Structures are given as structure tokens and as C-alpha cells.
Protein: Diaminopimelate decarboxylase
Organism: Conchiformibius steedae
Amino acid sequence: MNLNALAEQFGTPLYVYDQSALDHALDRYTQAFPEATLICYAVKANSNLSILRHFAQRGCGFDIVSGGELARVLAAGGDPAKTVFSGVGKSSDEIRFALSHQIKCFNVESLPELDRINTIAAETGCRAPVSLRINPDVDAQTHPYISTGLKENKFGIPMAQAEAAYQYADTLPHLNIIGIDCHIGSQLIDLSPLVEACERLLPLVERLQAQGITLQHIDLGGGIGIVYHNENTPDIAAYAAEVRRLLAPYSLQLILEPGRSLVGNAGVLLTRVEYVKQGDGKDFVITDAAMNDLLRPALYGAYHQIDNISAPEREARVADIVGPICETGDFLAQNRLIGAQAGDLLAVRSAGAYAASMASNYNSRPRAAEVLVDDTGAAKLIRRRETLAEMLANEHNLL
Ligand code: LLP
């Protein structure tokens, strides 16, 4: 793939995704896990319609967290019957929207949410399929902002309340209890917390069964980490083997909600160097991409590998690679060994997940374009660069 040519053709900043890498990442899941496993791609990782359509055509379902994400799944031709709806704060409108499209399941995160879904299902004369998201109180050993399975996190129903929550759900006439789920965090580089979470849920499945509450599926969430730097990431086959062993005594369909591991390493963010500034003690490589295009370094101190792809031979120096935004936190990398001059093209690696989908217009910067290189090598513009007029379009100048 000629990234320099793509930057010339489409301009920068530019997200470029590689379709064969998407396929390869999905193949790793489908080969490791039993055929009956439903892979619900986590839309939040990269919600571009073409990416969603690609996964839909490959048979995936979707994990959504808003009505907006459901609209995207529908627009991309995704199957609502393979779509699960996660999130702690589903609004009444979102629940109504999802019910009207007969999604597979609501992953319910609180008792008041159970009540709300029951009431809305009653109004619409249906029974809503629900699974309870249990917070297993397991430390995912990841960045605190993306750790979700500890009892101090806002997510899920505490383990200690889980059985009573199922019993309560069972009394609500417009709910159909079909599953159990958890999601303990993202960018997991150790398998043991994932396995432990599953181990904690299964005794509950048994206790519920004894009370006549029979579940059809278990959803273990997303969370396999990817390589950004030098992480030792988990082996999907080893994860699958553990899960297969744990689930063998049960007749439960397995659902997974991977996001990052399907798209993260399939994308790069291309950015042009505007200036190189010699500071007092260190250099600053100032690029045309900024924290509004890739928030992860600013928000989590995340590491992304950055390569000079137009002039790789330049002598490297230690520099901060920063964007034009007026925030000290606006950096793509700090204290990085890089050789760069104005006009050079840099590739920020592993930018397929949580990059474009977390982008904003901060500093009134239009959203960057996205390109998908298909398996024939053809580059398709899957989101055109936002124009200034589009960026202003929803606002009124009333004064
Ligand atoms: N399922 C649920 C309910 C989730 O909340 C998430 C991610 C996933 C699945 C997908 O997890 P994955 O397979 O991608 O690890 N913005 C952060 C990541 C936030 C993840 C939020 N939830 C980042 O850039 O690292």
C-alpha cells in the first residue's frame, strides 16, 4: 500500500484502513472460537459505515451503546437480530428505537433500567429480550479509564446483587431473560482476568437454572488487547480454549464483543509535518493531525508508534510530536526518537480503533477523511473530509 500516494491524493490528516487486515483479524476469532459463537463487533471502536458493512457481510453482529450506533448498523445493512445494546444510560427513545427493530438483546446494567425497558415493552405490546451485565469485580489490569469490571466502576450490576436482580427481572412480565454478560475492560494484555470473570459468572448461571431461570447465552464482552508498542498480547486461541473448557458443561451460546482487536492494527493516521521547532532542551515536530483526530495519547497517555514514511533516512532526535491545538495535552507522542522535517509524511500506527470514532471538531478543525484500501489494493474514500461549511451547518447566527 503506497501511503505517500494516498496522502497526496486525499490530503492529510487521513485515516487509512486495510481491508485484508480487517479480514485477518476477524479470521483469528472465527478460527479460534466455535462456529456458533456470535461475534458482535463493538461499533464504538470504528463506526464508519463501510467498516460496519464489511463486518456485516462477513456475518458479524454488533455491540452498540447508543441509538446513533443502531442507526449506523441499520444504515450499513447490519442485522438488528444480531445486535446487542450495552451501556449504563439507555434513554427511553433509544430503548423504543431498539425494540422497534427487534434487536437481539439489551445488556441491562441496573434495576431502574429493567423497569424502564419493561414499561416501554408493555407500551409497545412486546417482550424485550434482556441479559444482565454483571460486574464481576475483577481487575482487568489496564488503564483505569478503560477498566470497567471493578466494583467502583459505574458499569454492570454488582455480583452481590446479581441473583436478586435476575429474580426481580423474572417478575416483570414484559421482559424475556435470555442471557448474562460482562465486560471488564479494554486493551487487556493478560488473559487471566477475562477467564476469571467468566468463572465468576458461571456458578450464577447454575443457581438461576435451579430456580427455573434458564439462560440461552453468555456474552464475555470485548477486551483482547493489541500491540501498540511492545506489549505481549494474549493469544486468541488460548483464550478460546479456556472459554471452551469453562463452557463445556453448559448449553450456552457464546457472544463476544471485540472492537479494538478487529480494527486497531488495520488502520494508520497519516499526518504531514508543518514545522519543526527547536525548543529549549527538546524539539517539537508539529503535525497537521492533533488530539481532535487522535485523542488516545492525550486522554490515556497511550503510545502509538510513529514512522516517517516519506523520509525514513532522516537523522533521529528526541522530540515531542504535537498538533496545532492550543492545549499542552495536544501531543501524539512525547520524548520520541524521530527524524523529521517540514513536509515529511508521518504514519501514526494502530489508529484503526478509537481514533476516527473519538474525533471531534475541537479548535474548529474539520474532521479528517477516511480511506479503505480493499483487497484488490484499490483505495476507496469512505468518509470525505468535512468542509468548513459542513462544520458550521448546524449552528445559527442569531444576533
Ligand atoms: N463491549 C463493551 C460493553 C464495551 O464497553 C467495549 C469498549 C467493548 C465491548 C469493546 O472493547 P474492545 O474489544 O475494543 O477492547 N477509548 C478507549 C477504549 C474504550 C473502550 C470502551 N468500551 C481507548 O481508546 O483505548
